[in-house]
Specification:
Blueprint lengths: L2 H14 L6 H12 L4 H12 L3 H40 L4 H5 L12 H6 L2 E7 H11 L3 E4 L8 E6 L5 H8 L7 E3 L3 E4 L1
Parallel strand pairs: 2-5
Antiparallel strand pairs: 1-3, 4-5
Length: 192
């Protein structure tokens, strides 16, 4: 039984049989009723009686926080190890001979731009004649251009060229334009 219920029972009992209680007991009960309630204590008592899951939720939150902390630290450690290994690989592949570093070996593959730059920055042809556009594309892919249709040389287009695309894909895209028919035959681009 709650203290408040007990006090109410006493009060009813006092009204029914006032002879059973002394004046001191009645004054103590009135003083007890006049006291300010302890809100924190009342809340804790209420929580114990009506919210039994308060403690387990707090415990689960602590466990979850610990696990998140462990996972975060583990992730950072793995990232640091990966970065260190990358740095070691880079250092080990760099030549130690200053003459070799100043004169890198000649490449047999010619590209106007480094491959990473070519993939990031597409080339945009805006109102450029087909012969100039195809000449640049063919040079990049080490091919040559032959025009069987001389009128097609002066056709002008707006075209965005992604250098990482294979030549056959580029030609397939260009062939979607009206009045353009380009055929690839053994590194030779023929405009019909």
């Amino acid at each position: 039984m709650r203290p408040n219920d007990h006090n109410q029972q006493l009060f009813r009992d006092m009204q029914e049989a006032p002879d059973k209680y002394s004046d001191q007991e009645i004054e103590a009960m009135i003083d007890d009723l006049d006291r300010e309630p302890d809100v924190d204590e009342a809340w804790q008592q209420f929580a114990r009686q009506h919210i039994p899951s308060v403690r387990p939720v707090n415990a689960w939150r602590k466990v979850a926080a610990i696990l998140i902390g462990i996972l975060t630290i583990s992730g950072l450690s793995i990232a640091a190890v990966h970065i260190m290994r990358q740095a070691q690989r880079t250092e080990s592949t760099q030549p130690t001979d200053p003459i070799a570093a100043a004169n890198p070996p000649l490449s047999t593959h010619h590209s106007p731009l480094p491959p990473d730059t070519a993939t990031i920055h597409p080339v945009t042809f805006d109102n450029v004649p087909l012969d100039k556009m195809l000449a640049e594309i063919a040079e990049y892919h080490h091919s040559e251009v032959v025009f069987q249709n001389e009128d097609a040389r002066q056709l002008r287009f707006y075209f965005v060229w992604y250098r990482q695309q294979p030549l056959d894909k580029v030609i397939e895209t260009l062939n979607h334009f009206e009045r353009v028919d380009i055929v690839i035959d053994d590194k030779k681009l023929t405009v019909r």
